[in-house]
Request: fold
Amino acid sequence: MINADNKFCLIKNALDGKRYALYRDGDLIRILYAEGLVSGMGIGEVTLVDNNVITASLLLSGWNQEITADETLTGVAPLVVHFDGAETVHSSVDGFLDLFYHWDFGYTSTASQSVWGTTALLKGQQIGGPIAAHCFEKAGTYPCSVRIQDAFGAYVDRYFTVIVRLADDYYSAGNTICISKAGDFTGAPSGATTTTTPPTAVTSDTRYLYRAGEDYSTSTLSIAHSKSKVLIGSFGSGSKPKVWHKLVQTPPKTTDTLLNSVTFMDLNVNDMDIPFGDYISFIRCDSFDQGASDPYVAGCGETVAYYYNNPPASTNLSDIKWPKNSAWVSNTIDGNLVTGNAVGIRGNRPILLGNDIKDPSEHDVRVHLAYKLFMSHNLLGTVSNNTKTHLKFHAKGTGTFTEDYGSSPNPGSKYSVVSDNYNSEDSANWIMALAPQNNSSTELVSYIIMERNQFLYASGDTAAKVFHILSGQNLCVRDYTLSGTVTVRRAVGFDAHSQAIGIGTLSPYFVPAGNPYIDGSRIFTATGVVTPFKAGT
Reply:
């Protein structure tokens, strides 16, 4: 808690779990009270390091654009934007784990914001970690900002502008195609081209709208490289139209540009998978007809490694990249008991916002590789059978991430925020695991913040549950909540995928000695702080 003049604050020390009252006096921090010691002035003082300088490094990205502070990003509604402050530096603490980020997405009032259907929280701001994302659903000019603040009250503010255009304005009548097999064009935009024949391919800067309530799953809409700024949605009233689509499965040829800026919205689609391409979004879609052999319903980057090692003719290997800014917002992603996972992630700046993710045979979300992922406001496991985990978060290896696959074939996962997700009751005993995928894979997961996630269990469930499994570097779990009467068990630092160390609620955490991929992890609950320790210490 920090007072209005940013001079007095109450903190809980992550190192010893004690509460401190601090007062800022110029370049000194005076300790007014320390839990367990005699209160009063003069208990101690420390000198601020370099006057607590925060050097903000910020990047906004969306619709094939990247901007920094004081710049403007422009796109078409619904526009998904990724907010990145991961490179921010502080003179004395960790800029990723130890600073407080308050992202404001530019709404003028509480009344002008909607709430997440999954968590009932307002959509207009995100508080906590340095990675965030937002879907701007309505046209307008949004003065966005972020305040980055440390525990002593030092802060910096940075500003951005996001301009969102109305889809009807960007896609003129000549660039909008409405499809109805029954010839019913009630509700179609005025002047749009109409057809009863479903298209099999798309053109750049064009909008394709399918008649609500109709089934188009017997024809395939193919979306190839060298296409951009395409919107595929629906018109009219009724259930979401059933559309079978196929995003390009292979990397771009030397004569192509990479597919980018494609939005699917308000559809019932066969899958939400993104093999190649940047800035591709699925918004308010439902999934259908998953086959027994389909490993994922939604995801990105699954075939990148295969095609780098087995390149098609006329492929430049330097053009094979991890997908960037793949986004899934407010979808129903139903695993339908496929042999695998509901969502599988391999990519750069992926976004999972407000989805209902359920019913896989293994994991609700499996992150094979993520660099600057933001995953928030999702419902996990509302329907589940034989689910192993709600979130399995690992990596490809231990290398440094780069966009080019050839330069970064086996990177670690780094700089991600998983927040405000609801984990519902199911058969899973491991709920959220940040660790190597098994006991034989050398993989590094680092700088991940897990905050305000909720674990909901029925009052009659008495089975022991391992809520968090952490085996990586600089992993932070804070402010999570539990409901129900389950036995709380956690594992920190286990080095075998199938051998989690179950530890009681109040016990210290055990970290195997000699494991080079474990360092600096800690857990914060709503009622206490526990620091893991290494064996023998």
Notes: Helices lie at 167-170, 304-309.
